[in-house]
Amino acid sequence: MAEITLKDIRLSEYTLENLEGVGQLREEMLQAPVQICVERAWYITQYMKEHNREEMEAHPLLYRARAVYNYLSHKKPVIPDKNLLAGTTGAYLKTAPVYPEYIGLTIWSELDTISGRDKNPQLLTREDAEKLNFDIYPYWIDRDVLASTKKEYGNIMPVRLLEKMIFYVSGKAGCISHTVPDFKRVLAEGLESIIREADEKAVSAKPEEREFYQAVSLALKGLIRYAENLSREAQRQAMAETDRERREQLLKMAEVCSRVPAKPAGSFREAVNCIWLCLIGIHAENINMAISPGRLDQVLYPYYKRDMDSGKLTVKEALELTACLWIKTGDNVDLVPQVSEELFGGAGTAPAVTVGGIDEKGRDAVNDLTYIMLKVTELLKMREPNMNARYCAGVNSREYRNRVCEVIASTKAVPALYNDLENIKTLVNQGTMEEHARDYAVIGCVELACAGRSYDASSSIILNLAAALEMALYNGKRYVTGDEQFGPKTGEPSKMKDFDEFLEAFKTQTAWLIAQAVDLNEKMAAVHQRMLPTPLLSALFEGPMDKGRDLVFGGAVYNSSGATHVGFADVVDSLNAVKKLVFEDQYCTFEELLYAVRSDFEHRDTLLAYARNKPLKYGTWEESEKGCSRELIRFLYETYQGYTNYRGGKYRPAYWTMTNHSGQGKITHALPNGRRAHQPFASGITPVSEAASDLTECFRSVGALCSLYIPGGEALNIKFTAIRSREEAVLLGDFVEAYFRSGGQQVQFNIMSHEMLRDAKAHPEKYPGLLVRVSGYSAYFNDLNDSMKEELITRTEYGIQDGRMVPDYA
Amino acid sequence: MRDLLETELSALEQFDMDALDREIMDYGVTNALTQENLQAKYDPVRKAMEKKLLNCISGHTLENILDILLTLMGLVLRLDSHYRRNIENFNAIYVFTDKAGDFYSAAVFGDNKLTVTGRKVENPTFTLIFKDNRSLIKLLFSGAPDILNAMLNQEVDFDGNINYMSKFAYMALHLVLGLTGGIVFAQDTADL
Amino acid sequence: MRRTPLIFDISMGRLEDGEGIRTVVFYKGCPLRCQWCHNPESHSFTHDFLWDRGKCLGCQGCARACPRGLITVDGAGLHLKRENCDACGRCSAACPGNALLLVGKAYSVEELLEILLRDRCFYQVSGGGVTFSGGEPLAWPAYVGETARGLRAEGIPVTVETGGYFEYEAFRKLVLPFVDCVLYDLKLMDEQEHIRYTGVSNRRILENFRRLAGQRPAVKLVPRTPLIPGITDRSENLEEIRRFLAGFTDPTDHVLLPYNSDGERKRALLAGRPGTAWS
Questions:
Q1: pLDDT, tens digit (0-9, with 9 covering 90-100), for A231-248
Q2: B144: nearest CB among A35, A144, A337
Q3: What is the CATH number of the domain that holds C205?
Q4: pLDDT tens, B9-48?
């Protein structure tokens, strides 16, 4: 248990101005355009083109490692700014690398226009466009994950549903990602130690395992090659540098890269740079969608402490190095086709850093670095990394809790807060050992991982619950797809005699949809196993090295697949609305309700008002006691946990939505809760906007859902008009702590008013870099599309003084 | 509205794709001088087709966009070796049809060539079912194919690997952007 | 006279009315009629109706729902025959737009306690509790006292906000033992002014204050003055209040409250007396 030695945990004396060059680095990174980087795709594709397809399919691990080695050993060592840390994800300051195995081909039609498009252009050179068009894409046209799946399994229903895009999204089509690696070993022992272990084990291992170890050895060597090239480049630049200070920094950089990540980290700086280089290695192999650095305040602490104790490091330098790492984590974004911009835009890669909480033995884990990292987050106010603070009431101090709340008030958005007691309990319930559960870290957005031990594939399924609801309303069809029959025929609602019958129909449709999504996930997993094993990532986990098995084959200690849901609150309210309007009050017949919904409530003002005002609303205490919310959570949990995935783990339901609640909302018609057509759904597990008018009731209702049934994580978005003082920040902490005591798992905040956001939408130039919390991660408000902005503007807003909803008079 | 010149109109009237193919076979298309000659000779036809395509996209005419596009694409593939790289080792059959089945066109890519036929083909690589001209224009030429919204508005449906759609859309859009000056790239790597 | 008070709001998660996170219970009925009151629906001890013309959809649902046929809605507005109304609440329940609201609900002490205990995590974490306000909560010493006793038994602190016009003995016997803090309004020192602006004399108010001040430190006593422009905020009035307080309390205990102008909007929504139509 660490002693806090900082005299001022707020580190008030430090600003962006007096931290060396940090302000400048931040500006440059924020202003840097996104450059599409083709380097990785080029080297990997070239390598694969040169080799026989059957041979590669017979030894996927080895060839994957070789292709990655080919890239990493040729990867251009670039030093694009004055960041103290060496290494870049791509070949420029800020890149969107192309991953043709996954979603890289989605911009094919836009190669000529993506550099100049209005919203979030991603820059492509002519030369790179031609490389993609003529050399890279043709190789992958039949080979990416989705194409391979279709080829292998045909146009089966699960695939058709995926391609319709309005039922669910399958994470595996887009990535192997969403996990927290282990850095403790590489920091303590160096990659060479892992390579040695791999080489030794390869000698006497069984054939499949031998291949795994050989692949690990090779992939890691590729990363070391890159680090060595970086070192040489830094040296070269140092020799040519006339400015003495800069020269010294470059020489330092060269020295650091000559040691890490091959050898153990000998200093805080080496440790920080080592982690960054490992992340680059991971990005070399796989797309970055929430590859999360984890509990950095724990992992880096020994190196911090040693250097501080021996006088080799000052607090100021620790702040600077942390800031450099934070800025680096924003050096890569995902390639985004224009269509995705419209529906889902503004998301970064959401790399999650987790601070605070308790250690494996249950002791207070908050240390100096925790406060240093909070300070850096407070100063930088950037989208990356995705900051999360664990809080264990009764073990972590109130000072820590209140400091976190001050940072939230200052940045108006981050960090998000996590309830250790509930989360640990939930993980243990899933079969995690208590010590491991205590060491949990967040996977961006909000999912729970045992750092370096669990492979959770937490974005495996993103399911639109409103799709299931519509299929219950329309006997297996969806409004937008007209006459096409998708789900089973659960009957015409107008003939149903009671609400239970309708609820059964809804459950049947939901179970059916889940079955399709699970089936697709399992099939895509098989595709991953055949063509995309992940030896480099596997080397940074506990489990694979012992078992001789890649992560995608179940090498991790703990295995699961995450399935999250869009439209939870709207669906719950709609079920409650059907019950009240049709069956309890008999305000209208089911037929009349369906008619109103189909016609988007046109000329049905009183019905619309009744549907909006009278039924039970999720987020209120009465609904919690008498409505459908808890039943639905339980039903989904039991349905998912009935499945075992290809790695022997369970499916874990979750409730976070990225920007899917806006995108899916846009393409969904009206619903019985009075939501009009094309309006966004409520985000994550948050109640529908303006449904939960009382804050404490909202907290209690969400807390009552029972976290044991939400093992995949949840995102509760609460908006406050303002937090204006330290006292109010303490009260914010009180609200959170009481919510946690009521069973809540997670909460995140936007501290901004309807008016301010409206102003920002109308005049983005007045609010450069305005950071907002979407649903589990942060985004820059100005990057979001109009629909998503509106959703944020109209979210329920509470005044902290009276715990009541502030009406949106606009 | 772009008006066609007299020369272009008459060249278009006399144009015969099979004749061009024979010329190509006779002279061998890899010869640079031959390429230049052919390009000069067929330039009026190309210009005519390009104008027709642009007129169609802008809504000035109601001609069948697909016919024009495929013919122009076929022509440019034969004349322009750089554009032809798009179909190097590329073998695929695209079927374009409307829901009722009244319209049907198959574009066959193979042997470094594009052949268009109205014959029904078995096992096409990719099938695009579209509602009408406007739907197709919106899908292919508005900058980035919004398959999702097009599908939701019942304007298109498809069967096959969507990457093929992306590739075709790239090729089609490339032709048009080349004419309207809409191709935008980042500056050279050296400047970044 | 009623046996159980009517409560017109139970507001949770409040920070302003005392320490920590609190639930505030607003009792209906007040012996004063302060001209600036921001809760006009608190005056009457009986039910009130609030009708928001802007939310009314003209659906006649209220008229249909009234079992005594007391409501008509026309172009001029909503007309309700109050004298025959027994406040069954069916009209309000039937209103789709929540335009017509019945103000005032009766809870048994058990029911009220169950509601108040729901937020106990919030009270415990923040050092908060429950505040009784209104109207005049001390018009109901037995009820308020029993509720306060129930809360005290659960370790939840109780604050009472009062205008000072209540029967002291009943308060002393039934309420005071279970209360931790009293927020006591002192508005105007001049008796004639007091009658003019609040409808009652301030003698009882000042006398109650003297007696209550004698109970300290067993109960925390916070004198408060709402600053009503031109009326209570005049320097002579404030000086006199200070002099009055000097005998009992630390001058820093005296809280000055900014004027809350919400009353104007609410008066527009509030029902008139029986037989009146709104427009």
A1: 999 999 999 999 999 999
A2: A337
A3: 3.20.20.70
A4: 888 888 888 888 888 887 765 666 677 888 888 999 999 9
User: Is residue A678 within 8 angstroms of chain B, CB to CB?
Assistant: no
> Model confidence at B103, in pLDDT bands (50, 70, 90)?
confident
Residues C132 and C193 in one domain: yes
What ipTM score was computed for the predicted complex, to two decimals?
Answer: 0.93
Q: Are A737 and C125 in contact (CB under 8 A)?
A: yes
Contact status of A391 with chain C (Cβ, < 8 Å)? no
Residues of chain C with C-beta less than 8 angstroms from the C-beta of A694:
11-13
Distance CA A350, CA A658 (A): 10
Q: Are residues C94 and C133 in the same domain?
A: no
Q: How many domains does chain C have?
A: 2
What's at A37, amino acid-wise? C
Model confidence band, residue C273 (pLDDT cutoffs 50, 70, 90): very low
Q: Residue C75 belongs to what domain range? A: 48-102
- Rounded Cα distance between C176 and C163, Å, is 15
Same structural domain, C172 and C234 = yes
* Chain B residues touching residue A151 (CB < 8 angstroms): 161
List C-alpha distances in Å: A204 to A96, A199, A208, A214. 41, 10, 12, 12
Torsion angles phi and psi, residue A255, rounded to 5: -65, -45
Q: Is residue C188 situated within a structural domain?
A: yes
Which residues 169-198 of chain C have a CB within 8 Å of chain A? none
A742 CB neighbours in chain C (<8 A) are 121
* Terminal alpha carbon distance of chain B: 39
| C84 belongs to a structural domain | yes
Report the CATH number of the B6-178 domain: 3.30.1050.10
* Residue B50 one-letter amino acid: E
Instruction: Say if C270 falls within a structural domain.
Output: no
Q: Which residues of B touch A339 (CB under 8 A)?
A: 144-149
CATH number at residue C72: 3.30.70.20
C73 with C116, same domain: the answer is no
Question: β-strands A352-356, C255-257: how paired?
Answer: unpaired
Q: How many CB atoms lie within 10 A of CB A693?
A: 18
Domain ranges, ordered by start, for chain B: 6-178
Residue A652 · residue A456 · CB < 8 Å: yes
Q: In whole angstroms, how large is the CA radius of gyration of chain B?
A: 17
Rounded to whole angstroms, the maximal C-alpha distance in chain C is: 61
A581 close to C (CB below 8 A): no
CB contact under 8 A, A606 and C21: no
Tell me if C96 and A700 make a contact (CB, 8 A cut-off): no
Task: Check CB contact under 8 Å for A166 and B184.
Answer: no
What CA–CA distances, in Å, run from A335 to A64, A338, A346, C30?
Answer: 22, 10, 11, 65
C188, C94: one domain: no
- Euclidean distance between CA atoms C81 and C104, whole angstroms: 18
For the segment A424-433, what is each residue's pLDDT rounded down to a tens digit?
999 999 999 9
Residue A496 to residues A369, A584, A591, C245, Cα–Cα distance (Å)? 60, 14, 11, 70
Residues C81 and C162 in one domain: no
Query: Count of alpha carbons within 13 Å of A522, Cβ hemisphere only?
Result: 16
Q: Are residues C116 and C83 in the same domain?
A: no
Candidate from A113-122, A614-623, C58-67 with smallest mean pLDDT: A113-122
Considering the entire predicted model, what is its pTM? 0.94
Do A125 and B159 make contact, defined as CB atoms within 8 angstroms? no
Task: Give, for A387, the enclosing helix (H) or strand (E).
Answer: strand A386-391
Average pLDDT over residues A522-547: 96
Q: What values do phi and psi take at A725, rounded to 5? A: -155, 170
Pick among C9, C11, C21 to test the A interface (most A CBs inside 10 A): C21
Say if residue C11 is in the same domain as residue C78: no
Q: Residue C29 and residue C45: Cα distance in Å, rounded?
A: 4
In a domain, C115, yes or no: yes
Contact between A534 and A281 (Cβ < 8 Å): no
